[in-house]
Amino acid sequence: MTPFAAFARTAAALAPRTAVVLGSGLAGATRAFAERASVGFGDIPGLVPPTVHGHGGRLAVGAWAGVPALLFLGRQHFYEGHSWQTVTGTVRTVAELGARRVVLTNAAGGIHPALQPGDLMALRGHIKLLDATAWRGLASDNAVSQPYSACLVDAMQANERAAGRELLAGVYAALTGPSYETPAEIRALARCGADAVGMSTATEAEEAVRLGMEVAGISCITNKAAGLGGAPLDHTEVLTNAKLAVERMGELLAALIAAA
Ligand code: HPA
Questions:
Q1: Active-site residue, from 19, 108, 156, 199
Q2: Which atom, in ligand 1's list, is nearest to the CA of 110?
Q3: Which of 47, 68, 229, 241 makes an SS bond possible with 14, Cβ 3.0 to 4.6 Å?
Q4: How much is the average pLDDT of 28-37?
Q5: In which band, very low, low, confident or very high, does the pLDDT at 237 lie, cut at 50, 70 and 90?
Q6: What is the mean pLDDT of residues 104-129?
């Protein structure tokens, strides 16, 4: 039996309904997750081993606060040289394993003035500025007009209110990276209605919706976007500030998984 077939057999026994994709530096959000089995990206048909520091590159199955869940520790990025087919392989794997809900998390730069490093933002929409499909989603045959479930945004906000916190629901601008944006690009994105900016999630969200899944997105704000904070951006700052939000991210994920 291949490593993936063995993993799929364990996953089938647990029958998880929700899959979580963890973004840069967010592995600490998984304290409530008890792992039962895992498989490396390199052993999953359609995926390849990861290259970026901070990404584990495994798919695990287990129980999150007692509720079965799939958990991607790491994801595949376009800027690593992967094709979009590979980048979206994660959500096709989720569909193959039978889960109907996917929660896509990411690290992002904050554009909205209320967003500080260590804050979370629920995605209520995105602006996909990726390769040849930039701005063109709505013009294509298989357009996805609203990838993020409004019910799940409401549920996340209610959960945060109950904990005495406010959760902004905003628009995520997805750029290819790997370099961070220029301050002029951030000013342009702000005028276009973007609240946060990052290098992932949008394509996965659209593929998941095409596969009939319910999608939630959560950005962990790791820095003020270029030109809005004091210092130049770097990947170490992103990983350090992601740690500020992991507790809260873990609680939010537990609530989404429990409600599925
Ligand atoms: N820009 C793009 N991607 C990011 C950022 C950013 O400022 N922070 C974390 N990921």
A1: 199
A2: 7
A3: 68
A4: 94
A5: confident
A6: 95
Which residues line ligand 1 at a C-beta cut-off of 6 Å? 107-109, 180-181, 197-199, 222-223, 225, 233, 238
Q: Which amino acid belongs to residue 182?
A: T
Q: Distance from the CA of 236 to the center of ligand 1, in angstroms?
A: 12
| pTM score, whole prediction | 0.93
Q: What is the mean pLDDT of residues 70-78?
A: 90
Work out which ligand 1 atom sits closest to the CA atom of 233.
Answer: 7
Nearest CA owner, ligand 1 atom 6: 109
Among residues 253, 254, 251, the alpha carbon closest in space to that of 103 is found at 253
- Is the Cβ–Cβ distance between 20 and 257 less than 8 Å? yes
For the question of residue 82 being annotated catalytic, the response is: no
**Is 107 noted as a catalytic residue in this protein?**
yes
More confident residue, 251 or 231: 251
Q: How far is the CA of 136 from the centre of ligand 1 (A)?
A: 23
- Out of 119, 186, 233, mutate this one to test ligand 1's pocket (max ligand atoms within 8 Å of CB): namely 233
**Which pLDDT value is given to residue 215?**
97
Is 24 a catalytic site residue?
Answer: yes
C-alpha–C-alpha distance, residues 99 and 70, integer Å: 8
Q: pLDDT by residue (tens digit) across 193-232?
A: 999 999 999 999 999 999 999 999 999 999 999 999 877 7
| Burial of 66 per CB tally in 10 Å (0-12, 13-18, 19+) | exposed
